[in-house]
Every structure is written in C-alpha cells, then in structure tokens.
Specification:
Keywords: Hydrolase. The protein is α/β, with parallel strands linked by helices and about 160 residues long. It has seven helices and five strands. The radius of gyration is 14 Å and the shape is globular.
Length: about 160
Amino acid sequence: MNSPSQAQIIKFLKLSNDVGKRAISLGHHPFGAVLVAPDHETVLLTQCNMDTVNHAESTLARIAATNYPAEYLWQCTLYTAVEPCCMCSGTIYWANIGRVVYGMTEEKLLECTGNHDENPTMSVSSAYVFSHCQKEVELIGPVPELEDEIAELQNSFWSKR
C-alpha cells in the first residue's frame, strides 16, 4: 500500500480542520474527519463531530463500513486534524480502514481543552490502541507544519465554553 505524499497529507488535514469548523457552525465540537480513496485524491466521505459518543472519526468509520467493502477500506486513508481517541481508533480498526493521518496529538488537545466537562480527554494514544491490533494500521502523525493552525481552532473554541 503506497503512502500519500506530504502535499496530500497537508491538503486533507486542512480539509478535516475545515470540517471541524463546519461542526461548530452546526453547534457541535470542532472535530472533523475525511475518508480518502486509495488514489489519494478522491474524497469518499466527510463527517463532523456529532456529540460525545458520536465523534467524527467513529461516525465516519461506521458509515464507511456499511457502504464500502472491507478490502477496499483497508486501502483508504482517514484524515483527522486531531489524533483519534481510543474509542475512535477501535472503531476505525473494526471498520477495516488501513491508514490514519492526524495533525495534532490528543495530548496537545488536552492543553487546548483543559479539564473541560464537555471533552474529558483520555490519555490513551491511537498508537497504543493500534499496537494491540492483529492487523497493522498505518499511522501518520503528528504533522508539525499544521499543529499551530489546528491548535488555533481548538483554543478558540474551548476558550469560549
């Protein structure tokens, strides 16, 4: 399975951050996910965060699993501005999505949210979850070039709550 180029990584992480902005406009937390086809160009799905148990990544993974064959999804890439939490990482694995790219770590998200009741961040990395899977999900991130841009959206949102 060939990996996306750095330009593709930047492009789709920016799109996932834009989907997070769309989530805010819909009254949700600022998280978004993008599923890209094996050609590294075709956007198959985008998904906003819905609520505390329907995160953008897990909701997208469930929709993808009901609409695409598992073998196809294994060749796809899920992009998300913020590292998937352990719940989302598990759902991505069970949906058979073979690659995840994230821009900013869950640890950095905690710096943005603090001890916020609406986002009690867990300190379980996606790398930890994926390291316990039977199949190896390719994990790319964080992407330092975008961390400030992603953190800006998160800080802006959480400082007003």
